[in-house]
Every structure is written in structure tokens, then in C-alpha cells.
Amino acid sequence: MIKKIESASANRFLLLGIVLLIIGLIAVVQPLMVEQGLLWIIGILMIVGGCTQAIKGLGSGDASDKSFNLVVGALFAVMGIVVLVCWFSLLAFFTVIIGLLFLIQGFWTLIVAMSARQAQGHIAMLISGGLSLIIAILILAKWPSSSEYAVGILFGINLIFYGAALLALGTTLRNVPPVTVEGDAQPAETSTTAEEGASCDATKGSEGGS
Asked: Residue 192 falls within a domain, yes or no?
């Protein structure tokens, strides 16, 4: 049996990589628009999920199950409305969280790099920690105005790197030669062995008869 790596899989990786690259570039160029779009999508999904939960509760025959689904559904729907109405305030909150995470990561990476000076790669860790601290300072020092671009730009950069990785993977898959797996060789060998055994038996039979 011959198995070949389908070019369709490579094409899917290439297509997804191109789409992510385009979205990432848009996020870097128009970060606020992408941030607003992401929060609106989250809010709409929460409202739809809350309404679905509430409808499920209305159709339930058990009183406790009905009350639980109605309360949870109402809470999700209200939270979704809050996200749609107060999306910029939530964005400012998320920006602070991201800035603090970069700050903690930067300090921790520097501490680990300084304590492992003899290990290979400690210079790269120092550079990574320094860059994390610089990003954290830039985000926190310009907050809340940094909320208009920080999350979107970081999101876009992440999509650009991920899209580039998918493009590289798709290109590699397209250049991989076909892989041949001889799965049908065993039955052929078995048949050959059986024929040889029958031939040996016939030879022995003729010798015994003579």
C-alpha cells in the first residue's frame, strides 16, 4: 500500500497562515478597531450563550434546574451587555493586567538569567527579560491611553508569528517527497512461503515414493 502526503493539507496550512498574517497586519495597523471587534464578539457570544441557557431553563421540568439555568443565563446575558457597552473600560483593565504580566515575567527572567550565568542561553534570557520590562514600562507608563493600541498590537504580532510558522510548515509539507509504506508486502511473502512449503512437500513425497 502506498501512502502519500496530501498536498491539500499543505494548502490548508498555507491558506490559514496567509489569513492569520493578514489579520495580524490589520491588528498592528488598526489595533483599536481589532480590540473593539474582539470584545464585541465576546459580548455577543456571552449574550447568545446566556439566552440559550435561559431557554434551556424554561424548558426544564425540574424547579431547581430551571432556577439555576435562568439565573446563570441572565448573568451571562447581562455580562455580555456590559462588555458591549463598557468595552473600552474593560480594555483598559485588560491592558493593566497585560502590563503587570510583562513586568513580572521580565523580572523573573532576569533573576533566572543572573542566577545561571554559566548556562548556555543566559544572554538570550537577559535580552528577553529586558525586552519584557521595556514593554511593561511602555504599557503602564502610558496607561490608559496605551489601551488603544497595546492589546491589539500584541495580538497582531502574535498572529503574524503564528501565521509565518504555518506558512513555513505548509511549504515544508509541500516539498516532502511521497512516503511509500509497503503494507501489502507481508501477504505476498506469506503466499510465497506457502508455495515453497508445498513444493518441498511434493519433493519429499516423490522421493519417498521412489
From this structure: no
